[in-house]
Design brief:
Elements (H helix, E strand, L loop, with lengths): L2 H30 L8 H4 L13 H18 L3 H16 L7 E3 L5 E3 L2 H7 L6 H19 L4 E7 L2 H4 L15 H9 L7 E3 L1 H8 L18 H15 L15 E4 L7 H4 L11 E4 L6 E4 L8 E4 L7 E6 L4 H10 L2 E6 L7 H5 L3 E7 L2 H4 L13 H7 L14
Parallel strand pairs: 3-4, 3-11, 9-10, 9-11
Antiparallel strand pairs: 1-2, 5-6, 7-8, 8-10
Helix pairs in contact: 9-10, 10-12
């Protein structure tokens, strides 16, 4: 047999072996590695479909194939490796995102698609009824709290594409106003409503952008340290109209706390964490001057913060995922903070927190995701009143103090 034929035969056998190995590799990985190794929680932020139990009845038997298929799709061999390879091919080879939920913008920036894209383009405008619903919501909350001597401030945190429109994908061309633009224009006719638009403060901070030190993270959806501090300054400046004793933590007094192992990066969800890095940090004082007490009295994830000896107002704070980026700074400025990660208005928390001011901070997407008008529970009563009204009491202590 000629040398050429031998080389050809060797190449054929090598191809056959490699092809067979590629077919067997997922099954081998399925046997060697546990399902947890192909984790969907860290990357996709969801639990994998659990392995279904063996069916014990006709109804379970009918659902078994569908549930087993869903489990296999989340745990099949080499799933994570293949998804990473697909992501690398799309991002670095084809220059686009491997996921329809996350889009690639100019200079490799990431943006959430879906509702965010449609709102940015102006494809999801408010109806007249929805817009007036938001006005009614703000007016009702202001009046309800004012009747109890409590101030109120509603703050909208702009989405990243609002501050960096020059970096959005080319397919995001605007055809109309965003919901934030509509609400801001409508609120010009309601100057007495306590709301704060953070766009001016964040655009001003953007002027100091440097490479890898942006107002928002390139591959995330939230602020970086400078962006968070700019928002904090604007909030404190607005509240100082009613509470001049509020203390502002200057940026020069803060240290940059670099984030490690953060899930902020959308690269995690694209299976590109190994290849795409970003700097993410928070600004806070070197030594914390407040004490944190975790509680779940009304809302899961409620947090109580106290700072003794500070002559400052008490705060009840309702927030979303942008809240943690403000927490370290806001808690330095108030004598007491009760924070709730929630979209609801926990009226009953007023009696526990006894706040001087109620602050709501929500990302711009809330104008799409939340109902415009949400009536609050104006019938909530103080614990003392509920106790006085109760007819079944197990024990009561009456104490008299003298001297």
């Amino acid at each position: 047999m000629s040398p050429t034929a031998n080389r050809r035969r060797l190449l054929d056998w090598t191809t056959i072996v490699l092809f067979g190995a590629s077919l067997c590799a997922p099954a081998l990985d399925q046997l060697v590695r546990p399902d947890e190794a192909r984790d969907t929680v860290a990357a996709e932020r969801r639990e994998p479909e659990p392995r279904p139990a063996f069916p014990c009845g006709l109804l379970e038997l009918a659902a078994f194939p569908r549930r087993l298929e869903a489990h296999y799709e989340d745990t099949f061999g080499l799933r994570d490796v293949l998804l990473q390879a697909n992501a690398v091919e799309h991002w670095f080879g084809l220059g686009r995102s491997p996921s329809p939920l996350i889009e690639r913008g100019a200079q490799g920036w990431c943006f959430l698609g879906g509702d965010s894209r449609e709102d940015h383009r102006g494809l999801r405008p408010f109806s007249a009824q929805e817009l007036e619903g938001w006005i009614r919501r703000l007016r009702e909350r202001r009046d309800f709290l004012a009747a109890q001597g409590i101030r109120y401030l509603f703050v909208l945190c702009p989405s990243k594409e609002t501050i960096y429109p020059e970096r959005v994908p080319t397919t995001w061309s605007k055809v109309g106003p965003t919901r934030l633009e509509q609400l801001a224009l409508r609120l010009e006719r309601e100057p007495e409503l306590p709301w704060l638009d953070l766009r001016p403060a964040l655009n001003a901070a953007k002027a100091d952008d440097r490479t890898e030190d942006w107002v928002y993270t390139r591959f995330g959806t939230h602020w970086n340290g400078r962006g968070g501090h700019a928002a904090y300054r604007a909030i404190v400046a607005r509240l100082c109209r009613d509470f001049p004793e509020l203390e502002l933590v200057p940026e020069a007094s803060c240290r940059a706390l670099e984030a490690t192992g953060s899930t902020e990066s959308l690269a995690n969800q694209l299976y590109l964490t190994r290849w795409i890095r970003q700097r993410q940090y928070a600004l806070e004082l070197p030594e914390r001057r407040y004490t944190v007490h975790h509680a779940t009295t009304y809302t899961v994830g409620a947090k109580l913060v106290t700072r003794k000896g500070l002559d400052a107002p008490r705060l009840l704070w309702l927030h979303d995922s942008f809240g943690p980026f403000l927490e370290a700074l806001l808690c330095e400025s108030f004598a007491f903070v009760q924070a709730h990660w929630t979209n609801e208005f926990p009226s009953e928390a007023l009696y526990e927190a006894r706040p001087d001011v109620v602050l709501e901070t929500y990302v711009e997407r809330a104008l799409v995701e939340q109902e415009p008008y949400r009536p609050i529970d104006t019938q909530a009563e103080a614990p003392e009143a509920a106790f006085a009204r109760a007819t079944d009491r197990a024990w009561r202590a009456d104490a008299k103090f003298t001297g």
